[in-house]
Write a structure and sequence with these properties.
- The structure is a homodimer of 268-residue chains.
- Helices cover 42% and strands 17% of the residues of chain A.
- The model of chain A has no long low-confidence stretch (mean pLDDT 95).
- Chain A has 268 residues and is α/β, with parallel strands linked by helices.
- In chain A, helix 2 packs parallel to helix 4.
- Chain A contains twelve helices and ten strands.
- In chain A, helix 10 links the parallel strand 9 and strand 10.
- Chain A has one domain: Aldolase class I (TIM Barrel, Alpha-Beta Barrel), CATH 3.20.20.70.
- Chain A has an eight-stranded parallel beta barrel, surrounded by five helices.
- Chain A is globular, with a radius of gyration of 18 Å.
- Chains A and B meet through helix 3, helix 4, strand 3, helix 5 and helix 6 of A and helix 3, helix 4, strand 3, helix 5 and helix 6 of B.
Chain lengths: 268, 268
Protein backbone atom coordinates (compact mmCIF):
# COMPACT_ATOMS: atom_id res chain seq x y z
CA UNK A 1 0.00 0.00 0.00
CA UNK A 2 1.28 3.48 -0.83
CA UNK A 3 1.69 6.10 1.88
CA UNK A 4 -0.82 8.23 0.04
CA UNK A 5 -3.42 5.49 0.15
CA UNK A 6 -2.84 4.81 3.84
CA UNK A 7 -3.32 8.48 4.67
CA UNK A 8 -6.47 8.61 2.56
CA UNK A 9 -7.90 5.59 4.38
CA UNK A 10 -7.16 7.22 7.73
CA UNK A 11 -8.84 10.44 6.62
CA UNK A 12 -11.92 8.61 5.36
CA UNK A 13 -12.34 6.46 8.45
CA UNK A 14 -11.28 9.14 10.94
CA UNK A 15 -9.32 6.38 12.63
CA UNK A 16 -5.72 5.40 13.22
CA UNK A 17 -6.73 2.16 14.90
CA UNK A 18 -4.74 -1.00 14.26
CA UNK A 19 -6.22 -4.23 15.59
CA UNK A 20 -3.65 -6.79 16.69
CA UNK A 21 -4.71 -10.34 15.85
CA UNK A 22 -2.98 -12.07 18.76
CA UNK A 23 -5.38 -14.95 18.33
CA UNK A 24 -4.85 -17.47 21.10
CA UNK A 25 -6.72 -20.77 20.87
CA UNK A 26 -6.75 -20.92 24.67
CA UNK A 27 -8.54 -17.57 24.93
CA UNK A 28 -11.08 -17.50 22.12
CA UNK A 29 -14.73 -18.29 22.94
CA UNK A 30 -15.25 -22.00 23.48
CA UNK A 31 -18.09 -22.33 20.97
CA UNK A 32 -15.62 -21.55 18.16
CA UNK A 33 -13.72 -24.75 18.85
CA UNK A 34 -16.49 -26.61 16.98
CA UNK A 35 -15.37 -24.99 13.72
CA UNK A 36 -12.83 -26.65 11.40
CA UNK A 37 -10.49 -23.70 11.85
CA UNK A 38 -11.33 -21.88 15.09
CA UNK A 39 -8.49 -19.36 14.71
CA UNK A 40 -9.64 -18.32 11.26
CA UNK A 41 -13.29 -18.21 12.34
CA UNK A 42 -12.39 -15.94 15.25
CA UNK A 43 -10.35 -13.63 13.01
CA UNK A 44 -13.11 -13.56 10.40
CA UNK A 45 -15.75 -12.50 12.89
CA UNK A 46 -13.44 -9.90 14.45
CA UNK A 47 -12.62 -8.44 11.03
CA UNK A 48 -16.25 -8.42 9.94
CA UNK A 49 -17.22 -6.63 13.15
CA UNK A 50 -14.47 -3.99 13.06
CA UNK A 51 -13.26 -3.44 9.47
CA UNK A 52 -14.99 -0.06 9.20
CA UNK A 53 -13.35 1.14 12.42
CA UNK A 54 -9.72 0.16 11.89
CA UNK A 55 -7.21 1.13 9.21
CA UNK A 56 -4.73 -1.60 9.97
CA UNK A 57 -4.68 -5.21 11.12
CA UNK A 58 -1.63 -6.78 12.73
CA UNK A 59 -1.46 -10.57 13.06
CA UNK A 60 1.08 -11.51 15.71
CA UNK A 61 3.00 -14.22 13.87
CA UNK A 62 4.06 -16.13 17.00
CA UNK A 63 0.44 -17.05 17.68
CA UNK A 64 0.13 -18.74 14.28
CA UNK A 65 3.61 -20.22 14.14
CA UNK A 66 3.10 -22.04 17.44
CA UNK A 67 0.23 -24.01 15.91
CA UNK A 68 2.46 -25.45 13.21
CA UNK A 69 1.06 -25.99 9.70
CA UNK A 70 -2.52 -25.33 10.80
CA UNK A 71 -1.51 -21.94 12.17
CA UNK A 72 0.10 -20.89 8.90
CA UNK A 73 -3.04 -22.01 7.09
CA UNK A 74 -5.20 -19.91 9.41
CA UNK A 75 -2.93 -16.92 8.79
CA UNK A 76 -3.07 -17.40 5.05
CA UNK A 77 -6.86 -17.62 5.03
CA UNK A 78 -7.10 -14.58 7.29
CA UNK A 79 -4.95 -12.50 4.93
CA UNK A 80 -7.29 -13.34 2.05
CA UNK A 81 -10.38 -11.92 3.74
CA UNK A 82 -8.87 -8.63 4.95
CA UNK A 83 -10.31 -5.81 2.79
CA UNK A 84 -7.89 -4.05 0.45
CA UNK A 85 -8.38 -0.77 2.28
CA UNK A 86 -6.82 -2.18 5.43
CA UNK A 87 -3.06 -1.95 5.94
CA UNK A 88 -1.66 -5.35 6.99
CA UNK A 89 1.26 -5.73 9.37
CA UNK A 90 3.11 -8.98 10.07
CA UNK A 91 4.20 -8.55 13.67
CA UNK A 92 7.14 -10.89 13.29
CA UNK A 93 10.10 -8.99 14.78
CA UNK A 94 12.49 -10.67 12.39
CA UNK A 95 16.06 -9.62 11.53
CA UNK A 96 19.19 -11.55 10.57
CA UNK A 97 22.23 -11.26 8.29
CA UNK A 98 21.43 -9.97 4.79
CA UNK A 99 20.82 -13.20 2.87
CA UNK A 100 18.59 -14.46 5.68
CA UNK A 101 16.61 -11.24 6.12
CA UNK A 102 15.96 -11.41 2.37
CA UNK A 103 14.20 -14.74 2.99
CA UNK A 104 12.10 -13.28 5.81
CA UNK A 105 11.17 -10.32 3.60
CA UNK A 106 10.13 -12.73 0.85
CA UNK A 107 7.99 -14.68 3.32
CA UNK A 108 5.96 -11.76 4.54
CA UNK A 109 5.93 -9.45 1.51
CA UNK A 110 5.60 -12.03 -1.26
CA UNK A 111 4.12 -15.25 0.13
CA UNK A 112 1.69 -13.70 2.60
CA UNK A 113 1.48 -10.32 0.84
CA UNK A 114 1.65 -8.15 3.95
CA UNK A 115 2.04 -4.39 3.55
CA UNK A 116 4.47 -4.21 6.46
CA UNK A 117 6.61 -6.29 8.79
CA UNK A 118 8.11 -5.47 12.18
CA UNK A 119 11.91 -5.85 12.32
CA UNK A 120 14.41 -5.87 15.20
CA UNK A 121 17.34 -3.44 14.79
CA UNK A 122 20.09 -5.16 16.82
CA UNK A 123 22.02 -6.52 13.83
CA UNK A 124 22.15 -3.20 11.98
CA UNK A 125 21.68 -2.00 8.41
CA UNK A 126 22.28 -5.17 6.40
CA UNK A 127 19.70 -7.00 8.51
CA UNK A 128 17.06 -4.38 7.65
CA UNK A 129 17.99 -3.38 4.10
CA UNK A 130 16.46 -6.47 2.38
CA UNK A 131 13.07 -5.45 3.79
CA UNK A 132 13.48 -1.82 2.69
CA UNK A 133 14.08 -2.81 -0.92
CA UNK A 134 10.40 -3.55 -1.56
CA UNK A 135 8.53 -0.63 -3.08
CA UNK A 136 5.30 0.30 -1.31
CA UNK A 137 6.08 -2.21 1.43
CA UNK A 138 6.91 -1.01 4.91
CA UNK A 139 9.51 -1.96 7.47
CA UNK A 140 8.48 -1.15 11.01
CA UNK A 141 11.65 -0.99 13.05
CA UNK A 142 11.60 -1.57 16.81
CA UNK A 143 12.76 1.62 18.50
CA UNK A 144 11.08 2.00 21.89
CA UNK A 145 8.97 -0.94 22.97
CA UNK A 146 6.26 -0.95 25.63
CA UNK A 147 7.31 -3.97 27.68
CA UNK A 148 9.13 -3.86 31.04
CA UNK A 149 12.34 -5.23 29.48
CA UNK A 150 12.59 -2.18 27.22
CA UNK A 151 14.46 -0.55 30.11
CA UNK A 152 17.27 -3.10 29.94
CA UNK A 153 18.97 -1.82 26.79
CA UNK A 154 16.83 0.72 24.91
CA UNK A 155 17.63 3.49 27.39
CA UNK A 156 21.36 2.87 27.62
CA UNK A 157 22.99 6.23 27.11
CA UNK A 158 25.71 6.59 24.52
CA UNK A 159 27.11 10.05 23.75
CA UNK A 160 24.09 11.73 25.30
CA UNK A 161 21.47 9.66 23.49
CA UNK A 162 19.52 6.58 24.36
CA UNK A 163 20.00 3.44 22.27
CA UNK A 164 16.50 3.79 20.81
CA UNK A 165 17.39 7.32 19.60
CA UNK A 166 20.54 5.96 17.99
CA UNK A 167 18.39 3.35 16.25
CA UNK A 168 16.15 6.07 14.86
CA UNK A 169 18.91 8.50 13.89
CA UNK A 170 21.07 5.85 12.25
CA UNK A 171 18.26 4.11 10.38
CA UNK A 172 16.91 7.28 8.76
CA UNK A 173 20.27 7.55 6.99
CA UNK A 174 19.85 4.12 5.37
CA UNK A 175 18.94 3.75 1.73
CA UNK A 176 15.16 3.67 1.16
CA UNK A 177 14.58 4.88 4.72
CA UNK A 178 11.38 6.41 3.35
CA UNK A 179 10.00 2.87 3.66
CA UNK A 180 10.56 2.87 7.41
CA UNK A 181 8.05 3.20 10.20
CA UNK A 182 8.91 2.82 13.88
CA UNK A 183 7.50 0.98 16.89
CA UNK A 184 7.18 3.47 19.73
CA UNK A 185 5.64 2.11 22.95
CA UNK A 186 2.69 4.16 24.11
CA UNK A 187 3.58 3.80 27.75
CA UNK A 188 6.17 6.50 27.05
CA UNK A 189 3.78 8.91 25.28
CA UNK A 190 5.51 12.02 26.64
CA UNK A 191 8.62 10.98 24.72
CA UNK A 192 6.76 11.13 21.43
CA UNK A 193 7.36 14.85 21.43
CA UNK A 194 11.12 14.39 21.40
CA UNK A 195 10.92 11.59 18.86
CA UNK A 196 8.91 13.81 16.52
CA UNK A 197 11.83 16.25 16.50
CA UNK A 198 14.00 13.52 14.96
CA UNK A 199 11.41 11.97 12.65
CA UNK A 200 8.64 14.49 12.02
CA UNK A 201 7.26 12.67 8.99
CA UNK A 202 7.57 8.93 9.57
CA UNK A 203 4.64 6.83 10.65
CA UNK A 204 4.82 5.39 14.16
CA UNK A 205 3.19 2.14 15.22
CA UNK A 206 2.18 2.59 18.82
CA UNK A 207 1.44 -0.56 20.82
CA UNK A 208 0.69 -0.55 24.50
CA UNK A 209 -2.70 1.12 24.36
CA UNK A 210 -5.33 -0.94 26.14
CA UNK A 211 -4.18 -4.01 28.08
CA UNK A 212 -0.63 -2.65 28.36
CA UNK A 213 -1.67 0.89 29.50
CA UNK A 214 -1.21 4.29 27.78
CA UNK A 215 -3.98 6.61 26.51
CA UNK A 216 -5.07 7.38 22.97
CA UNK A 217 -5.39 11.11 23.66
CA UNK A 218 -1.81 11.42 24.88
CA UNK A 219 -0.44 9.51 21.92
CA UNK A 220 -2.41 11.65 19.45
CA UNK A 221 -1.45 14.88 21.18
CA UNK A 222 2.27 14.24 21.05
CA UNK A 223 2.58 11.91 18.10
CA UNK A 224 0.29 13.07 15.31
CA UNK A 225 1.72 14.97 12.36
CA UNK A 226 0.19 16.62 9.28
CA UNK A 227 -0.33 13.21 7.64
CA UNK A 228 -1.63 11.71 10.90
CA UNK A 229 1.57 9.63 11.07
CA UNK A 230 0.29 7.20 13.69
CA UNK A 231 -1.14 3.74 13.93
CA UNK A 232 -2.34 2.93 17.43
CA UNK A 233 -2.56 -0.76 18.13
CA UNK A 234 -4.84 -2.57 20.53
CA UNK A 235 -4.99 -6.35 20.70
CA UNK A 236 -6.20 -8.11 23.81
CA UNK A 237 -8.55 -5.36 25.01
CA UNK A 238 -10.52 -5.74 21.77
CA UNK A 239 -10.14 -9.45 20.99
CA UNK A 240 -11.01 -10.74 24.44
CA UNK A 241 -13.60 -8.18 25.54
CA UNK A 242 -15.95 -11.13 25.93
CA UNK A 243 -15.42 -14.88 26.00
CA UNK A 244 -19.03 -15.52 25.01
CA UNK A 245 -20.96 -15.68 21.77
CA UNK A 246 -21.13 -11.88 21.77
CA UNK A 247 -17.36 -11.56 21.43
CA UNK A 248 -17.42 -9.86 18.03
CA UNK A 249 -20.04 -7.36 19.12
CA UNK A 250 -18.10 -6.58 22.27
CA UNK A 251 -14.89 -6.29 20.25
CA UNK A 252 -16.65 -3.72 18.08
CA UNK A 253 -17.71 -1.78 21.16
CA UNK A 254 -14.13 -1.69 22.44
CA UNK A 255 -12.81 -0.61 19.04
CA UNK A 256 -15.49 2.08 18.87
CA UNK A 257 -14.41 3.46 22.25
CA UNK A 258 -10.88 3.92 20.95
CA UNK A 259 -12.08 5.50 17.71
CA UNK A 260 -14.21 7.91 19.76
CA UNK A 261 -11.10 8.93 21.68
CA UNK A 262 -9.37 9.64 18.37
CA UNK A 263 -12.20 11.80 16.98
CA UNK A 264 -11.18 15.15 18.51
CA UNK A 265 -7.92 14.89 16.60
CA UNK A 266 -9.72 14.68 13.26
CA UNK A 267 -11.38 18.10 13.52
CA UNK A 268 -10.20 20.33 10.74
CA UNK B 1 19.94 -31.97 25.83
CA UNK B 2 21.81 -31.51 29.09
CA UNK B 3 25.05 -29.56 29.23
CA UNK B 4 26.75 -32.71 30.46
CA UNK B 5 25.60 -34.66 27.42
CA UNK B 6 26.65 -31.93 25.01
CA UNK B 7 30.13 -31.85 26.52
CA UNK B 8 30.37 -35.63 26.36
CA UNK B 9 29.41 -35.61 22.68
CA UNK B 10 32.06 -33.00 21.98
CA UNK B 11 34.67 -35.03 23.82
CA UNK B 12 33.74 -38.22 21.97
CA UNK B 13 33.73 -36.65 18.53
CA UNK B 14 36.68 -34.31 19.15
CA UNK B 15 34.60 -31.71 17.37
CA UNK B 16 32.78 -28.48 18.16
CA UNK B 17 31.42 -28.20 14.64
CA UNK B 18 27.89 -26.98 14.06
CA UNK B 19 26.53 -27.29 10.54
CA UNK B 20 24.10 -24.56 9.54
CA UNK B 21 21.30 -25.87 7.37
CA UNK B 22 20.70 -22.70 5.33
CA UNK B 23 19.11 -24.82 2.66
CA UNK B 24 18.28 -22.66 -0.33
CA UNK B 25 16.25 -24.26 -3.13
CA UNK B 26 18.02 -21.95 -5.60
CA UNK B 27 21.43 -23.24 -4.58
CA UNK B 28 21.05 -26.98 -4.04
CA UNK B 29 22.18 -29.33 -6.81
CA UNK B 30 19.71 -29.39 -9.67
CA UNK B 31 19.27 -33.17 -9.71
CA UNK B 32 17.60 -32.94 -6.28
CA UNK B 33 14.71 -30.98 -7.75
CA UNK B 34 13.34 -34.30 -9.08
CA UNK B 35 12.61 -35.43 -5.52
CA UNK B 36 9.22 -34.81 -3.87
CA UNK B 37 10.89 -32.72 -1.19
CA UNK B 38 14.25 -31.43 -2.49
CA UNK B 39 14.99 -29.44 0.68
CA UNK B 40 14.55 -32.48 2.89
CA UNK B 41 16.51 -34.71 0.51
CA UNK B 42 19.40 -32.24 0.54
CA UNK B 43 19.37 -32.02 4.34
CA UNK B 44 19.15 -35.80 4.65
CA UNK B 45 22.19 -36.38 2.47
CA UNK B 46 24.15 -33.63 4.23
CA UNK B 47 23.32 -35.10 7.64
CA UNK B 48 24.15 -38.66 6.55
CA UNK B 49 27.49 -37.47 5.20
CA UNK B 50 28.52 -35.37 8.20
CA UNK B 51 26.75 -36.62 11.36
CA UNK B 52 29.90 -38.20 12.77
CA UNK B 53 31.83 -34.95 12.31
CA UNK B 54 29.47 -32.39 13.80
CA UNK B 55 28.01 -32.08 17.31
CA UNK B 56 25.28 -29.59 16.37
CA UNK B 57 23.00 -28.81 13.45
CA UNK B 58 21.42 -25.40 12.98
CA UNK B 59 18.54 -25.00 10.54
CA UNK B 60 18.16 -21.36 9.56
CA UNK B 61 14.42 -20.94 9.98
CA UNK B 62 14.05 -18.15 7.38
CA UNK B 63 15.00 -20.59 4.62
CA UNK B 64 12.10 -22.89 5.55
CA UNK B 65 9.58 -20.21 6.44
CA UNK B 66 9.95 -18.57 3.02
CA UNK B 67 8.69 -21.76 1.36
CA UNK B 68 5.41 -21.63 3.24
CA UNK B 69 3.79 -24.88 4.40
CA UNK B 70 6.16 -27.05 2.37
CA UNK B 71 9.15 -25.44 4.09
CA UNK B 72 7.78 -26.18 7.55
CA UNK B 73 7.16 -29.76 6.45
CA UNK B 74 10.75 -30.08 5.24
CA UNK B 75 11.97 -28.70 8.56
CA UNK B 76 9.81 -31.09 10.53
CA UNK B 77 11.01 -34.11 8.55
CA UNK B 78 14.61 -32.94 8.89
CA UNK B 79 14.30 -32.71 12.68
CA UNK B 80 13.10 -36.32 12.82
CA UNK B 81 16.18 -37.75 11.12
CA UNK B 82 18.82 -35.86 13.12
CA UNK B 83 20.50 -38.34 15.48
CA UNK B 84 19.86 -37.89 19.21
CA UNK B 85 23.51 -37.20 19.84
CA UNK B 86 23.38 -34.02 17.79
CA UNK B 87 22.43 -30.73 19.46
CA UNK B 88 19.75 -28.96 17.41
CA UNK B 89 19.55 -25.18 17.13
CA UNK B 90 16.64 -23.24 15.60
CA UNK B 91 18.35 -20.18 14.17
CA UNK B 92 15.22 -18.06 14.41
CA UNK B 93 16.37 -14.82 16.09
CA UNK B 94 12.99 -14.37 17.72
CA UNK B 95 12.09 -12.08 20.65
CA UNK B 96 8.93 -10.20 21.60
CA UNK B 97 6.92 -9.21 24.69
CA UNK B 98 6.53 -11.99 27.25
CA UNK B 99 3.27 -13.61 26.16
CA UNK B 100 4.48 -13.64 22.55
CA UNK B 101 7.95 -14.96 23.28
CA UNK B 102 6.22 -17.76 25.17
CA UNK B 103 4.54 -18.74 21.89
CA UNK B 104 7.85 -18.69 20.02
CA UNK B 105 9.44 -20.81 22.75
CA UNK B 106 6.58 -23.29 22.45
CA UNK B 107 7.03 -23.45 18.69
CA UNK B 108 10.68 -24.33 18.73
CA UNK B 109 11.04 -26.24 21.99
CA UNK B 110 7.76 -28.16 21.97
CA UNK B 111 6.44 -28.46 18.42
CA UNK B 112 9.78 -28.87 16.63
CA UNK B 113 11.67 -30.16 19.69
CA UNK B 114 14.84 -28.15 19.18
CA UNK B 115 17.46 -28.14 21.93
CA UNK B 116 18.13 -24.44 21.44
CA UNK B 117 16.85 -21.30 19.76
CA UNK B 118 18.60 -18.04 18.90
CA UNK B 119 16.97 -14.96 20.44
CA UNK B 120 17.45 -11.20 19.87
CA UNK B 121 18.09 -9.16 23.05
CA UNK B 122 16.71 -5.73 22.07
CA UNK B 123 13.46 -6.01 24.04
CA UNK B 124 15.13 -7.10 27.31
CA UNK B 125 14.50 -9.66 30.02
CA UNK B 126 10.79 -10.38 29.60
CA UNK B 127 11.33 -11.12 25.91
CA UNK B 128 13.95 -13.75 26.77
CA UNK B 129 12.66 -15.21 30.02
CA UNK B 130 9.94 -17.43 28.43
CA UNK B 131 12.68 -19.26 26.54
CA UNK B 132 14.85 -19.65 29.64
CA UNK B 133 12.07 -21.38 31.56
CA UNK B 134 12.55 -24.66 29.69
CA UNK B 135 14.79 -27.10 31.52
CA UNK B 136 17.59 -28.59 29.43
CA UNK B 137 16.66 -26.28 26.57
CA UNK B 138 19.00 -23.49 25.54
CA UNK B 139 18.54 -19.86 24.65
CA UNK B 140 21.30 -18.51 22.45
CA UNK B 141 21.27 -14.75 22.83
CA UNK B 142 22.68 -12.49 20.13
CA UNK B 143 25.60 -10.58 21.61
CA UNK B 144 28.18 -9.83 18.91
CA UNK B 145 27.16 -10.81 15.41
CA UNK B 146 29.45 -11.32 12.43
CA UNK B 147 27.67 -9.20 9.81
CA UNK B 148 28.75 -5.70 8.69
CA UNK B 149 25.71 -4.09 10.39
CA UNK B 150 26.93 -5.32 13.79
CA UNK B 151 28.95 -2.10 13.91
CA UNK B 152 25.80 0.06 13.83
CA UNK B 153 24.65 -0.56 17.40
CA UNK B 154 26.53 -3.43 19.07
CA UNK B 155 29.63 -1.31 19.63
CA UNK B 156 27.90 1.80 20.93
CA UNK B 157 29.70 2.72 24.10
CA UNK B 158 27.72 3.28 27.27
CA UNK B 159 29.55 3.88 30.54
CA UNK B 160 32.75 2.42 29.12
CA UNK B 161 31.20 -0.74 27.71
CA UNK B 162 29.89 -1.71 24.31
CA UNK B 163 26.22 -2.57 23.93
CA UNK B 164 27.06 -6.23 23.35
CA UNK B 165 28.93 -6.31 26.66
CA UNK B 166 25.89 -4.79 28.39
CA UNK B 167 23.78 -7.53 26.82
CA UNK B 168 26.07 -10.18 28.25
CA UNK B 169 26.50 -8.63 31.70
CA UNK B 170 22.80 -7.88 32.12
CA UNK B 171 21.55 -11.23 30.87
CA UNK B 172 23.75 -13.32 33.14
CA UNK B 173 21.86 -11.75 36.05
CA UNK B 174 18.52 -13.04 34.74
CA UNK B 175 16.77 -15.98 36.34
CA UNK B 176 17.82 -19.32 34.77
CA UNK B 177 20.73 -17.62 33.03
CA UNK B 178 22.45 -21.00 33.25
CA UNK B 179 20.32 -21.86 30.21
CA UNK B 180 21.95 -19.12 28.16
CA UNK B 181 24.50 -19.40 25.41
CA UNK B 182 25.69 -16.47 23.31
CA UNK B 183 26.24 -15.72 19.64
CA UNK B 184 29.72 -14.26 19.23
CA UNK B 185 30.79 -13.49 15.65
CA UNK B 186 34.05 -15.17 14.74
CA UNK B 187 35.25 -12.21 12.73
CA UNK B 188 36.08 -10.67 16.09
CA UNK B 189 37.97 -13.65 17.49
CA UNK B 190 40.46 -11.51 19.40
CA UNK B 191 37.57 -10.17 21.47
CA UNK B 192 36.76 -13.66 22.68
CA UNK B 193 39.47 -13.23 25.25
CA UNK B 194 37.70 -10.26 26.83
CA UNK B 195 34.33 -11.95 26.59
CA UNK B 196 35.67 -15.01 28.42
CA UNK B 197 36.53 -12.73 31.35
CA UNK B 198 32.80 -11.91 31.70
CA UNK B 199 31.41 -15.36 30.92
CA UNK B 200 34.10 -17.96 31.51
CA UNK B 201 31.67 -20.89 31.59
CA UNK B 202 28.89 -20.24 29.09
CA UNK B 203 28.83 -21.88 25.68
CA UNK B 204 29.36 -19.58 22.71
CA UNK B 205 27.91 -20.17 19.28
CA UNK B 206 30.40 -18.77 16.82
CA UNK B 207 29.18 -18.09 13.29
CA UNK B 208 31.26 -16.45 10.62
CA UNK B 209 33.76 -19.24 10.10
CA UNK B 210 33.97 -20.21 6.45
CA UNK B 211 32.11 -18.04 3.92
CA UNK B 212 32.00 -15.09 6.33
CA UNK B 213 35.73 -15.33 7.27
CA UNK B 214 37.38 -16.03 10.67
CA UNK B 215 39.61 -19.00 11.51
CA UNK B 216 38.90 -22.04 13.65
CA UNK B 217 42.30 -21.91 15.34
CA UNK B 218 41.83 -18.32 16.52
CA UNK B 219 38.36 -19.03 17.85
CA UNK B 220 39.55 -22.13 19.72
CA UNK B 221 42.62 -20.36 21.11
CA UNK B 222 40.67 -17.48 22.61
CA UNK B 223 37.25 -19.00 23.17
CA UNK B 224 37.66 -22.53 24.50
CA UNK B 225 37.17 -23.23 28.19
CA UNK B 226 37.54 -26.34 30.38
CA UNK B 227 34.22 -27.72 29.04
CA UNK B 228 35.13 -26.74 25.47
CA UNK B 229 32.38 -24.09 25.65
CA UNK B 230 32.23 -23.46 21.92
CA UNK B 231 30.13 -24.41 18.94
CA UNK B 232 31.65 -23.20 15.69
CA UNK B 233 29.16 -22.89 12.87
CA UNK B 234 29.75 -23.20 9.16
CA UNK B 235 26.93 -23.17 6.66
CA UNK B 236 27.50 -22.19 3.04
CA UNK B 237 31.14 -23.36 2.87
CA UNK B 238 29.96 -26.90 3.67
CA UNK B 239 26.51 -27.04 2.06
CA UNK B 240 27.51 -25.59 -1.28
CA UNK B 241 31.02 -26.99 -1.66
CA UNK B 242 29.75 -28.57 -4.86
CA UNK B 243 26.63 -28.08 -6.93
CA UNK B 244 26.97 -31.52 -8.52
CA UNK B 245 25.97 -35.03 -7.53
CA UNK B 246 29.05 -35.22 -5.30
CA UNK B 247 27.73 -32.44 -3.05
CA UNK B 248 27.41 -34.61 0.08
CA UNK B 249 30.89 -36.03 -0.33
CA UNK B 250 32.34 -32.57 -0.86
CA UNK B 251 30.40 -31.28 2.13
CA UNK B 252 32.00 -34.03 4.20
CA UNK B 253 35.45 -33.02 2.98
CA UNK B 254 34.82 -29.39 3.98
CA UNK B 255 33.51 -30.46 7.39
CA UNK B 256 36.52 -32.70 7.84
CA UNK B 257 38.90 -29.81 7.13
CA UNK B 258 37.31 -27.81 9.94
CA UNK B 259 37.41 -30.77 12.31
CA UNK B 260 41.10 -31.24 11.49
CA UNK B 261 41.71 -27.60 12.44
CA UNK B 262 40.00 -28.28 15.78
CA UNK B 263 42.07 -31.38 16.58
CA UNK B 264 45.08 -29.68 18.17
CA UNK B 265 42.75 -28.27 20.81
CA UNK B 266 41.61 -31.73 21.87
CA UNK B 267 45.06 -32.93 22.97
CA UNK B 268 45.03 -33.72 26.66
Amino acid sequence: MTRHRLIENIRNKKSILCIGLDTDVQKIPKHLLDYDDPVFEFNKQIIEATHDLCVAVKPNIAFYECLGISGWNSLSKTMKIIPDTIFTIADAKRGDIGNTSAMYAKTFFEIYDFDAVTVAPYMGFDSVEPFLRYENKWTILLALTSNPGSADFQFLDSAGQSLFEHVIRKSIEWKSSGNLMYVIGATKASMLNDIRKIIPDHFLLVPGVGAQGGTVAEVCRYGMNKDFGLLINASRSILYASSGKDFALRAREEALKLVEEMKPFFQT
